[in-house]
Amino acid sequence: MSKTKEAKRVTTHVLQEMKASGQRISMITAYDYSLARLVDGAGIDVILVGDSASNVMAGHEPPLPITLDQMIYHACGVVRGCERALIVVDLPFGTYQGNTKLALSSAIRIMKESGAHAVKLEGGREVAGSVERILSAGIPVMGHLGLTPQSIYKFGTYVVRAKEEAEAQRLREDAKLLEEAGCFAIVLEKIPAALATEVARSVSIPVIGIGAGAGVDGQVLVLHDMLGINKEFNPRFLRRYADLHHIITDAVGNYISDVRSGDFPNTEEQY
Ligand code: KIV
């Protein structure tokens, strides 16, 4: 889409209509102005400023260290780069759990300081109070169930979640609860496809999957993973749409040899 054309903004209401009409929702992460501008221009529906920034931008393994200030910094760049997509920002670890007042003030900071459109948080019944309190300020909330990376030390592993009936039942109930609390959408991460399909059919709000099969209302991937920048991360659910690892390594390698040989810059590339 051309940046000069007026782009109609995707809203939570538009996502609701997309679910109702069976149109699948595309969502992707972005953490900075330049890449947000590219994915927005390509026509993505939702951009998630995920706390996966802690992994792909800062090199941490679990996303726990990223701070609210850092999330706001990333979100500001994304907001400046977008005209069309709905922009959702993750509440980072330690800014909403177990404290509804803190949850509200963290969400307000994100909305006021970045200009994003919604927040996302992880968990079910244990965060329902925070969801309701954030919503009381008119801030849309996206839920996140299944594999929730902020709780990785509780799970102890990145394996598929909710394979056992007790955990599956808890997830079904939590999805209903998040819907009742007022979430406008839910991300389901790394759970059996049949369970994800069942959950998507049981709630009226859009369900966006990552490693949750094709029976949900939309899909989300981490941008750096699907572009093949991060070549070490190879989960089964990941489809790579580019091989930027090799493209960037080759390009930078060619630049280095041109600098070393004196080939760059040539007479056309100087003043
Ligand atoms: O932080 C993130 O990128 C996410 C997605 C994997 C859904 O939460």
What can be said about this structure in brief?
It is built from eleven helices and eight strands.
State the CATH superfamily name of the largest domain.
Phosphoenolpyruvate-binding domains
Kindly report the CATH topology of the largest domain. Answer: TIM Barrel
Helical content class: 40-55%
Strand content: 5-15%
How are the strands of the biggest sheet laid out side by side? Answer: 1-2-3-4-5-6-7-8
| Cα gyration radius (Å) | 20 Å
How would you describe this protein?
With 271 residues, this protein is an alpha/beta fold. The protein contains eleven helices and eight strands. An eight-stranded parallel β-barrel has the order 1-2-3-4-5-6-7-8, surrounded by seven helices. Helix 4 (68-81) runs parallel beside helix 5, helix 5 (100-114) crosses helix 6 (128-136) and helix 8 runs parallel beside helix 9 (193-202). The protein is globular and about 65 Å long. The chain starts with 11 loop residues before the first helix and ends in a 10-residue tail after the last helix. The mean pLDDT is 96. 3-methyl-2-oxobutanoic acid is lined by residues 29, 48, 50-52, 90, 144, 187, 189, 210, 220, 222.
